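cron nightly-structures :: item 1 of 1
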Amino acid sequence: MFLGTRPTVVGFPRPGRVLPKVVESDRKYHQRMARRLLERDQELATLLDAASVAAKGTGSVILLHGEAGIGKTSLVSAIRSQLPDGTRMLVGACDALSTPRTLGPFRDLTAAVGPRLARALQAGERDLVMDALLDELQRPPPTTLVVEDVHWADEATVDTLRFLVRRIAQLPVVLLLTYRDDELSRDHPLTQLLGDASHAEQVHRLSPQRLSEPAVRALVAGSSLDAEEVYALSDGNPYFVNELVASAVGSSVPPTVVDAVLGRLGRLAPAHQDTIELLAVVPSGLDRRLVDAVVSDQAAIAAAEERGLLTVHRDGVSFRHELTRRAIADALPVARRLELNARVLAAMEGLGIYDAGRLVHHASEAGDVDALVRYAPIAARDAATSGAHREAAAYYTLALAHENRFTPAELADLFEECAVERYTIGAAADAVTAQRRTVTLRRQLQDQRALGLSLRWLSRIMWFNGRRAEADEAAEEATAVLGEVGDDGLFAFALSTQSQLAMLASHTEEAAALARRAIALATAAGATAVLSHALTNLGNARWQSGDRDGFNDLQEAVHVALSIDDVEDACRAYVGIVWCLLDEFRLDDAEPFMTDALELSEHAEFIGFLAYLHGCRARMELARGHWEAAVAAAELPARSQPAAHCVALTVLGTVQARRGEAGATELLEQAQRVAEQIDELQRIGPVTAARCEHAALRGDSAAVIDIAEPILAEAVRLGDHPLQAELAYRIRKAGRLVDPPDGDHPFALQARGDWQAAARAWAERGCPYHRAAALADSSDPAALLEALPILDGLGAIPLSRQVRAQLRQLGVPNVPRGPTADTRENPAGLTERQLEVLRLLARGLTNNEIASQLVLSVRTVDRHVAEILGKLGVTSRRQVTARAEALGISRPGP
C-alpha cells in the first residue's frame, strides 16, 4: 500500500495546500499511488461523485474516519489528480501538539486564499474568519476543502467547521474531514460537530476497512516475504503492511511496526539519522525556511525520501505518516529530545515564526521555562480571542505553573484571565481558585478600581459554583469599593451584580430597585454592557412578580448585548426568557428563544451557559412527554456547575418517578442537597415539586404535605406564582385544604378543582402527561378511560395503575389491561421493518444509504423515518438515536 503525504507545513502564516494538476511529476506520483490503492474503489467513487456534484453548486460533507494507518491520507492524495476540471483542493491539518493550535488548519491556507481571508486568519478573530471563509468558498472555483486529523482540532476550528457544515448545501464545496475514531470520547469537542455533520443535508460517512488477505498478498508479491506472516503481523492495516514490506531484509519481517520504522532509519548514515530525528520532534511537516534553518545536509532529506520515511514537497517536507514520526520521536532518549526541541525552538525564533502555540509546544518539550512564560500568555490570549476557551485555559495553566517568573501585576492579570476562561468552559471550582488569587494580589497592589472589578468577577464565579453566601459577600465589597473610585459605569456594574443576586434569590422588589438604579447610572455613563446586565435583572424580577412587561426588558437586554457582541449577557437574557416561559409551560413560545440561545452559546463555546440551556431543554422535553429526549439532554450538564446539575438531577429523578423505576428517590435527594447548597427558591422549588409528585405516585399523601407546606409558604412570601400553583395543587390532591391561587396557570386550575379546564390547558400547551394527570383527577369514568392510553403510551406505570384502581373502585367493567411484555420490550410499537430502519438511523446512515442497504426506495424510507419520529415522540434524527438507545431497541438482534 503506497501511503499518501501529510500536506501540512509549519509556521505562521503557513503555506496553503493548493494542489494544481499542472506539474507532471506530481501527476505521475499521484497516478502511481492511485494504482497501488487496493480495495478502495467505493470510497474513491464517493469522493469524486461528491466533487462533481459540488462543481454544479451543491456541497456536501464527507466524514472519513478510521484507525491510524487505515489509509485516510492515501485516499485524500488519490483524488488530487482526478478532481473535475477547474476544482481547487485546499488542505489543512490539525497537529498533535500538547495544546491544539488555534485555527491551525485554516491558518495553513493563508498563502492559498484571497487577501480578506488571509487577513482574518492572521488577526485570529473567529467571527471575521467565518465571514471571510464563507465569502471565499462562495466564489468560483468549486473547492474540495480537506481538514485532516480533526480529532486534534482546537475549539475555534471545531466551531468554524460547524459553521460551514450548517451552510454546506448552498456552497460549491466538498468539506472532507478525516479523524480517528479511537481518539474520541463522549466529551471530546469534536463529538458535537460530528452530530451536526451527520444531520447535514448532504453527508457521506466513509470508513475504510482493513485490507483482506488477498490484498496483502498482492502487495507482498514480488518479494521473498511470507504473505501470511505479513498479514498476521499487520492484521490488514495498510500502513503496517507498507512498513513491514518496506523495511524487510531478505525474507525477514520485523516483529513490530516500530522495529520496522527504526530499522529503516538505522539503514541511513549516522549523520542522516540525526537529521531525521531532529525533524521527528516537529508534530507536522516543516516549511522550506525551517528545513533550511535546521538541516545543513540536504542529502539526509533525499536519503530519507528514498527510504520512504519522508515526503518532499515544493514548499517543505513531512513524514510519510504521523505514525512514522511518532515511532522515531518516541524512541528518542529524553536528553536527546530536549536538545532537538531546543534547536527547533531557536530556529523558529531566529526566523521570526511567531506562531505562539507551536513555540509553546517546543518550549515545553525543551524544558525552556523562559520561552514558555514568554509565549504561553500570548498563545492563551490568541486562543481566547478566537473563542478557543479550553485551549486558552490550558495555556494560562502552563504559564501560571511558573508564577515566580511574573510581576505581581502581571500575575494578577493572568490569574483573572485564567479564571474567566475556566468559568467560560464550566470549570467552576478551578475558576474560584484562580479568582481568589487574583483578589489577593489586587489587595496587595492597592488598585481599588481593579480590585472592585475582580471582586465583581469573584461574586459571579462563586455563585456559578453554588456558593451563595460568598457570592453575596464579594458583591457587597465590590459595590463599596467601586462606589469610591468615581466611575459611574463601574459603580452601576456593581449595583447590577447585587441586583442579579437579589433576583436569583427571588427578592424581586430589591432586585428591581437596584436594577433601575444601575440602568440610570449606566445610561448616563454610556456603559452599554452594564445596561444589558441590569435590564436582564429587571426583566426577570418583574416577570417573577407577575408583571409580564418584564418580557420586554429581557428582549431589550438581548438586543443590547448582541449589539456589542456581549455573549455572556445575551445568553443570560435568553435564559431568563426561556426559564420564565417554561415555568408557565408555554413550550412553543420558549422554543425559538432556546434555539437562538443554544446556537449563540455553541457558536461562542460558552460551555457554562450551554450546560444550563441543556437543562432547560431537558425541562421542555419532559413537559412534552419526550422522556428519552429529556434524559439525553439532562445527562449533558456537568456536575461542576451546581445550578445546571440541580436542574438535570430533577429532570432525571422525575422521569424515573413517572416510570416507576428504581433510583428516583436517590436522584431527587441528590437534587435536594444541591438545591439547599445553592439556597435559592428557584432551585429548591422545582425539586420540592418533583419530590411531592414522587410521593403522590407512591400513594404517600402525608409525605406530600410534609414536603410541600413549608416551601409553599416561602413561594407565597416571595411571590413565585407558578410554584405556588403547583404546590397548592399537590397539597389539595393529598387531602388538605389550601387557599387556591388565582390565575390561568394549569396547576392553578387543578388546585381549584377544575380538572376539565386544566386538561384543556395542558392539551393546548402540548403536555400529554399533565393532561392525563388532570383527567385522572376526575371521578368520571370517561375521563379516566381517556387518560389511560396516554399514560400507557408514555410508559407512566405508577399513575396508570392508580387510574385503573380508581376505575375498578367505580365499578367499571372490563378495565383495559396495561401493555403486554412484548410491547414493553418494544414500547414504541414499531414494526419489524421500522426497527430495521431505526437501527440504521442510530448508526448515522442517511435515508439514501438506508434505502440502498435495505433495497427499498428512498420514498419508502422517508415514510418509515417519519412514522418512527412520530412513534418515538421526537422531532430530529439525533433525538431518534438517543431515545432508541435508551429504550434498548436500537441494537441489532442476535
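cron nightly-structures :: done
Residues 1-35 have pLDDT under 50 and may be disordered.
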